[in-house]
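hey can u check if this looks right to u? its 493 residues, i copy pasted from the old doc so theres a chance i mangled smth
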Amino acid sequence: MTKRILIVGKSGLLGTKLHERLVNKYRVGGVSKSGAGMNNRELDITEQDAVETFFDTYSFDVVIHVAANTDVDFCEHNQTEAWETNVEGTKNLVLECKKRGIKFCYLSSDYIFSGANPPYEADANPDPVNYYGMTKLEGERIIREELHDFVIIRPGKLYGYTPDFGCDPFTSWVRNSLSEDSTVRVDDSIVKYPTLIDDVSRFVEAAIESDWTGLFNFSGPDSTTKYEWARSIAANYGFDSSRVEAKTADPYADRPQDVRYVSTDFGIDPHGVETGIEVMYKQEYCSFRPIYRMDIAEEFQGQSSGEIRKRLGAVLAREDDIEPDVVVPIPKSGIYPAIGYAEEIGSPLEFALSKQQLRKRTLYDESIDRINVLEEKMRAIKSLIENKTVAVVDEAVLSGKTLRTVIPILGAASKIHVRISSPPVTQTCPAYMHPENSNIFVDDLDIDSESNDIESAIAAELNVSSVKYVDRDSYLLEMGVEGDDICSFCFHS
């Protein structure tokens, strides 16, 4: 049975990344205080009755708790509010998980240590130097006292990018300041260990899959100050790093000096600062994202994703030499490129493929359900395709699973031509923009490097009349960008 996972704090930076990573493998729902975003319910974890009612309504196998007040100076100045959120809120969740036997995954902090005596083992004695660290440590104490099936992860300073949230606050502040021609002055005395949210998400996923329990110290491998870190951000995003100046911090609340962890092999190789920033850049400027990870109304380079997809379908038609009787989109991903293709080539658009309608859910994301429906419930409307030449259109091919499912269903057609409104995907994304469990279709085929060889090999594998992709240059042109301004690593060039 597919595990049911609740992300508490889903609308934040780490919460959105966790959802992005887990949603294609598990049933994932989320809550936050605001309730903002898709598949995210409003829940104030400081209200015990509300938390109890919520858990009476929904069932979970794992709860991932990432919600917290993480503003260190605010916590020092507003201790009652910090305690309510970071301690009482955590306690309310823990007690509900205890009653129901739910695994509890808690994102703590390296701030439970003073940083005076590195390196730190997971069982080292905590000695926080500020109130925020005290609240996170108290959360740990409650978990260890009340639960047996728990994972406590103490990451370093989190950073990263998600399409919903954008960049982490520090990276955003550095970039925004430099873009306004301001000088950035940051601390050069306190040592940080920046930890990419993608790596933390990989760690959480491994903990769930392997059923880990206990305390885990986990951070990026590089020691750096905010000054050095800001200079790396400036250089990687095309700014003059000399406009970053060093200063000595004088914060309201004390900070740990150097929380270096004892190196432990968890089977996850975390990114250093330079490679982590590179991952962020590739994610933000990913040429695959507008057709795969964006809602049709979201904008990329001033254009809606739906508009881009439709134009790419038209480009595909202009480069084509077939005369299909009907154009059939793969639901739902192929609809917009199929509209553009059909309008340009002058053939009727027919919605000849049908999926079973999923029952509406109030919490869980439906992605995993869509995968199951694709495998089991896709059907063709025979009267729309029988004895006809069909152009079946989709926006991209990763594993080829969709096409392998759909082509036999269209068996009543006299000819099937597969049309894809993006270039061939020939490499797995190093920045985690592809689903982690997706194999690349072309890896399983005996093909040369030329695009037409890829098309011929896929056509033979699928037993269809032809396969055609949009070439990379035409694709990037429709995106409105130059090749060097956007990442197209995964696409065949």
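The mean pLDDT is 92.
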